[in-house]
Amino acid sequence: METQNMTENFGMPRIGDKAPAFKAVTTQGPIDFPAQYAGSWVILFSHPADFTPVCTSEFMTFAKMEEQFAQVNCKLVGLSVDGLYSHIAWLRTIKEKIEYKGMKDVEVRFPLVEDITMEVARKYGMIQPGESSTKAVRAVFVIDPKGIIRAIIYYPLSLGRNFDELYRVVVALQTADAFSVATPADWRPGDDVIVPPAGSCGVARERMEGQADMHCYDWFFCTKKLPKEQVLDAILKK
Q: What CATH number is given for 2-161 in this structure?
Protein backbone atom coordinates (compact mmCIF):
# COMPACT_ATOMS: atom_id res chain seq x y z
CA MET A 1 0.00 0.00 0.00
CA GLU A 2 2.85 2.38 0.82
CA THR A 3 4.43 1.82 -2.61
CA GLN A 4 1.07 2.42 -4.29
CA ASN A 5 0.58 5.71 -2.43
CA MET A 6 4.07 6.89 -3.38
CA THR A 7 3.34 6.12 -7.02
CA GLU A 8 0.06 8.02 -6.92
CA ASN A 9 1.84 11.08 -5.50
CA PHE A 10 4.30 11.17 -8.39
CA GLY A 11 2.05 11.16 -11.44
CA MET A 12 3.01 12.40 -14.85
CA PRO A 13 1.25 13.94 -17.86
CA ARG A 14 0.77 11.84 -20.97
CA ILE A 15 1.33 12.23 -24.67
CA GLY A 16 -1.53 14.31 -26.06
CA ASP A 17 -2.08 16.21 -22.80
CA LYS A 18 -1.65 19.95 -22.44
CA ALA A 19 1.72 20.67 -20.92
CA PRO A 20 1.19 21.50 -17.23
CA ALA A 21 1.54 25.25 -16.71
CA PHE A 22 3.94 26.80 -14.24
CA LYS A 23 5.67 30.06 -13.43
CA ALA A 24 9.20 30.03 -12.08
CA VAL A 25 12.54 31.79 -11.80
CA THR A 26 15.26 30.80 -14.27
CA THR A 27 18.82 31.74 -15.15
CA GLN A 28 17.32 33.86 -17.96
CA GLY A 29 14.66 35.56 -15.83
CA PRO A 30 11.04 34.68 -14.99
CA ILE A 31 9.29 32.06 -17.09
CA ASP A 32 5.59 31.50 -17.79
CA PHE A 33 5.47 28.00 -19.23
CA PRO A 34 4.23 27.02 -21.76
CA ALA A 35 2.31 30.23 -22.51
CA GLN A 36 5.33 32.31 -23.50
CA TYR A 37 6.43 29.60 -25.94
CA ALA A 38 3.22 29.56 -27.95
CA GLY A 39 4.05 29.12 -31.62
CA SER A 40 7.32 27.29 -30.96
CA TRP A 41 8.28 23.71 -30.31
CA VAL A 42 9.96 23.23 -26.94
CA ILE A 43 12.10 20.58 -25.30
CA LEU A 44 11.60 20.74 -21.54
CA PHE A 45 14.16 18.51 -19.87
CA SER A 46 15.25 17.77 -16.32
CA HIS A 47 18.61 16.78 -14.89
CA PRO A 48 19.39 15.29 -11.48
CA ALA A 49 21.76 17.93 -10.07
CA ASP A 50 24.12 20.78 -10.80
CA PHE A 51 27.88 20.16 -10.49
CA THR A 52 27.59 16.54 -11.64
CA PRO A 53 29.56 15.10 -14.56
CA VAL A 54 26.86 13.47 -16.69
CA CYS A 55 24.66 16.56 -16.44
CA THR A 56 27.61 18.77 -17.35
CA SER A 57 28.26 16.77 -20.52
CA GLU A 58 24.58 17.05 -21.41
CA PHE A 59 24.35 20.80 -20.91
CA MET A 60 27.45 21.38 -22.98
CA THR A 61 25.98 19.28 -25.78
CA PHE A 62 22.59 21.00 -25.65
CA ALA A 63 24.26 24.43 -25.64
CA LYS A 64 26.34 23.44 -28.67
CA MET A 65 23.20 22.28 -30.50
CA GLU A 66 20.92 25.16 -29.44
CA GLU A 67 21.18 26.93 -32.80
CA GLN A 68 20.48 23.67 -34.63
CA PHE A 69 17.27 23.27 -32.64
CA ALA A 70 16.39 26.93 -33.20
CA GLN A 71 16.55 26.38 -36.96
CA VAL A 72 13.63 23.95 -36.65
CA ASN A 73 11.71 26.36 -34.39
CA CYS A 74 12.50 24.45 -31.21
CA LYS A 75 13.53 26.10 -27.94
CA LEU A 76 15.20 24.51 -24.92
CA VAL A 77 14.28 24.74 -21.24
CA GLY A 78 16.20 22.90 -18.54
CA LEU A 79 15.20 22.15 -14.96
CA SER A 80 16.53 20.64 -11.76
CA VAL A 81 15.57 20.88 -8.11
CA ASP A 82 18.64 23.02 -7.38
CA GLY A 83 18.43 26.72 -6.55
CA LEU A 84 19.07 29.65 -8.85
CA TYR A 85 22.49 30.56 -7.40
CA SER A 86 23.65 26.96 -7.76
CA HIS A 87 22.51 27.03 -11.40
CA ILE A 88 24.38 30.28 -12.07
CA ALA A 89 27.58 29.08 -10.41
CA TRP A 90 27.50 25.74 -12.24
CA LEU A 91 26.93 27.31 -15.67
CA ARG A 92 29.75 29.78 -14.99
CA THR A 93 32.03 26.87 -14.08
CA ILE A 94 31.11 25.08 -17.31
CA LYS A 95 32.03 28.14 -19.34
CA GLU A 96 35.26 28.96 -17.51
CA LYS A 97 36.72 25.57 -16.64
CA ILE A 98 35.26 22.61 -18.52
CA GLU A 99 36.61 21.31 -21.81
CA TYR A 100 35.02 18.11 -23.09
CA LYS A 101 35.09 16.43 -26.51
CA GLY A 102 36.44 19.55 -28.14
CA MET A 103 33.80 21.74 -26.50
CA LYS A 104 35.11 24.59 -24.37
CA ASP A 105 34.12 28.11 -23.36
CA VAL A 106 30.53 26.88 -23.66
CA GLU A 107 27.89 29.40 -22.63
CA VAL A 108 24.42 28.07 -21.80
CA ARG A 109 21.95 30.68 -23.01
CA PHE A 110 18.69 28.79 -22.66
CA PRO A 111 16.81 29.06 -19.33
CA LEU A 112 17.49 26.68 -16.46
CA VAL A 113 14.54 26.56 -14.06
CA GLU A 114 14.94 26.73 -10.29
CA ASP A 115 12.67 24.13 -8.67
CA ILE A 116 13.82 23.76 -5.07
CA THR A 117 10.25 22.95 -3.94
CA MET A 118 10.01 20.19 -6.59
CA GLU A 119 6.63 21.59 -7.60
CA VAL A 120 7.35 21.55 -11.32
CA ALA A 121 9.22 18.24 -11.17
CA ARG A 122 6.22 16.63 -9.48
CA LYS A 123 3.81 18.10 -12.06
CA TYR A 124 5.81 16.47 -14.81
CA GLY A 125 6.53 13.19 -13.03
CA MET A 126 10.25 13.90 -13.03
CA ILE A 127 10.65 12.58 -9.49
CA GLN A 128 10.75 8.79 -9.69
CA PRO A 129 10.92 7.40 -6.13
CA GLY A 130 12.36 4.08 -7.26
CA GLU A 131 15.34 5.97 -8.70
CA SER A 132 15.55 8.91 -6.30
CA SER A 133 13.09 10.84 -4.14
CA THR A 134 15.34 13.91 -3.96
CA LYS A 135 16.55 14.30 -7.55
CA ALA A 136 14.79 14.51 -10.90
CA VAL A 137 15.48 11.79 -13.42
CA ARG A 138 16.53 12.73 -16.96
CA ALA A 139 13.06 13.43 -18.37
CA VAL A 140 12.45 14.91 -21.82
CA PHE A 141 9.14 16.42 -22.92
CA VAL A 142 8.72 17.51 -26.53
CA ILE A 143 5.93 20.08 -26.67
CA ASP A 144 4.39 21.45 -29.86
CA PRO A 145 3.47 25.08 -30.72
CA LYS A 146 -0.02 24.56 -29.28
CA GLY A 147 1.35 23.48 -25.92
CA ILE A 148 0.56 19.78 -26.43
CA ILE A 149 2.97 17.09 -25.25
CA ARG A 150 3.99 15.08 -28.30
CA ALA A 151 6.78 12.86 -26.98
CA ILE A 152 8.13 11.78 -23.60
CA ILE A 153 11.49 10.12 -23.02
CA TYR A 154 12.89 9.10 -19.63
CA TYR A 155 16.44 8.12 -18.68
CA PRO A 156 17.84 7.00 -15.31
CA LEU A 157 20.37 9.07 -13.39
CA SER A 158 23.38 7.16 -14.70
CA LEU A 159 22.56 7.35 -18.41
CA GLY A 160 23.39 10.41 -20.50
CA ARG A 161 20.95 11.23 -23.31
CA ASN A 162 21.48 10.84 -27.06
CA PHE A 163 21.03 14.38 -28.35
CA ASP A 164 21.06 13.43 -32.02
CA GLU A 165 18.00 11.31 -31.23
CA LEU A 166 16.25 14.19 -29.47
CA TYR A 167 16.79 16.36 -32.54
CA ARG A 168 15.59 13.52 -34.80
CA VAL A 169 12.39 13.23 -32.73
CA VAL A 170 11.58 16.92 -33.19
CA VAL A 171 12.26 16.78 -36.94
CA ALA A 172 10.25 13.57 -37.37
CA LEU A 173 7.25 14.96 -35.49
CA GLN A 174 7.28 18.12 -37.60
CA THR A 175 7.58 16.07 -40.78
CA ALA A 176 4.66 13.86 -39.78
CA ASP A 177 2.54 16.96 -39.14
CA ALA A 178 3.56 18.75 -42.33
CA PHE A 179 3.04 15.83 -44.72
CA SER A 180 0.42 13.68 -42.92
CA VAL A 181 2.74 10.68 -42.85
CA ALA A 182 4.46 8.46 -40.32
CA THR A 183 8.17 7.82 -40.01
CA PRO A 184 9.66 4.30 -39.82
CA ALA A 185 12.40 2.99 -37.55
CA ASP A 186 15.62 5.00 -37.68
CA TRP A 187 14.08 7.53 -40.08
CA ARG A 188 16.16 10.52 -41.12
CA PRO A 189 15.26 13.34 -43.54
CA GLY A 190 15.57 11.93 -47.05
CA ASP A 191 14.45 8.42 -46.10
CA ASP A 192 11.13 7.03 -47.33
CA VAL A 193 8.12 7.77 -45.13
CA ILE A 194 5.09 5.62 -44.36
CA VAL A 195 1.71 6.46 -45.85
CA PRO A 196 -1.27 5.54 -43.68
CA PRO A 197 -3.39 2.88 -45.43
CA ALA A 198 -6.82 3.75 -46.81
CA GLY A 199 -10.01 2.28 -45.42
CA SER A 200 -9.83 -1.08 -47.20
CA CYS A 201 -7.17 -3.37 -48.66
CA GLY A 202 -8.33 -3.00 -52.25
CA VAL A 203 -8.62 0.77 -52.11
CA ALA A 204 -5.21 1.09 -50.48
CA ARG A 205 -3.42 -1.08 -53.04
CA GLU A 206 -5.14 0.63 -55.98
CA ARG A 207 -4.32 4.06 -54.61
CA MET A 208 -0.68 3.24 -53.92
CA GLU A 209 0.22 1.23 -57.00
CA GLY A 210 -0.89 4.02 -59.29
CA GLN A 211 1.75 6.40 -57.95
CA ALA A 212 5.36 6.05 -59.05
CA ASP A 213 6.89 7.39 -55.84
CA MET A 214 5.09 4.83 -53.67
CA HIS A 215 5.84 1.21 -52.87
CA CYS A 216 3.52 -1.26 -51.13
CA TYR A 217 4.99 -4.23 -49.28
CA ASP A 218 1.44 -5.26 -48.40
CA TRP A 219 -1.90 -3.48 -47.95
CA PHE A 220 -0.95 -2.21 -44.48
CA PHE A 221 2.65 -1.20 -45.21
CA CYS A 222 3.17 1.41 -47.95
CA THR A 223 5.99 3.91 -48.25
CA LYS A 224 6.72 6.87 -50.47
CA LYS A 225 9.74 8.98 -51.24
CA LEU A 226 10.05 12.32 -49.51
CA PRO A 227 13.20 14.18 -50.57
CA LYS A 228 15.35 15.67 -47.85
CA GLU A 229 15.14 19.11 -49.46
CA GLN A 230 11.35 19.00 -49.32
CA VAL A 231 11.40 18.08 -45.64
CA LEU A 232 13.88 20.79 -44.72
CA ASP A 233 12.04 23.39 -46.76
CA ALA A 234 8.88 22.63 -44.78
CA ILE A 235 10.37 22.65 -41.29
CA LEU A 236 13.37 24.94 -41.26
CA LYS A 237 12.66 28.31 -39.70
CA LYS A 238 12.87 30.95 -42.39
A: 3.40.30.10
